[in-house]
Design a protein that fits this description.
The protein has 102 residues and is mainly beta. 7% of the residues lie in helices and 50% in strands. It is built from one helix and ten strands, in the order E-E-E-E-E-H-E-E-E-E-E.
């Protein structure tokens, strides 16, 4: 699948599709078959994988810092060797994944 040229995507929430702007995303957290997209004012739980979402987002703005976390670089407020602080949340830093990104 080719990258989207628009700076947003739509996710299904209840019975409608909601637009999420890349600029509004703080971080994305994966848990089994779901990802939780955290914006400034909402959290969206979506069926899918972090790898798929990572391929949709621009790599110059988002980085996978742990196997289950993808963060917007400008939302990182500080970090040390084991953790980053993103939007007031402590997130682990580690080997991102063993899955290749095409």
């Amino acid at each position: 699948m080719a990258k989207q040229s628009a700076p947003f995507f739509f996710v299904r929430q209840e019975k409608r599709h909601v637009k999420i702007e890349f600029a509004d995303i703080r971080y994305v957290e994966a848990s089994k078959n779901y990802v939780q997209i955290v914006t400034g004012d909402k959290r969206y739980q979506v069926l899918g994988t972090l790898g798929y979402l990572e391929r949709l987002l621009p790599p110059e703005q988002f980085i996978r810092i742990y196997r289950s976390f993808l963060v917007r670089v400008e939302q990182v407020t500080s970090f040390d060797t084991r953790h980053a602080w993103v939007a007031g949340r402590q997130v682990p830093i580690g080997a991102p994944t063993s899955e290749p990104i095409p």
